[in-house]
Amino acid sequence: MTGVSIRPAGPADAEACARVMFTAFESLATRHAFPIEAQSPEFTRMQVEAMLAAESIYALIAERDGDVVGSAFQDERG
Question: What is the DSSP string of the chain?
Fold first, then answer.
């Protein structure tokens, strides 16, 4: 196993970012008996695709051994 590397995210990363994001939110919601805000993996992917296409949102992904293991999104508008 190698270390984690960080790089800018692009449109080709949408599916992997959405998978990581949905899994994280689903796990937290289930653990605390909250509704899952992201609704579905498909809905999450649509939102991630929109964020990756927005000029005002900057995204990074974390990779380990070529697999996306995390993501971060920052909206410049606030």
Answer: ---EEEEE--GGGHHHHHHHHHHHHHHHHHHTT---TT--HHHHHHHHHHHHH-TTEEEEEEEETTEEEEEEEEETT-
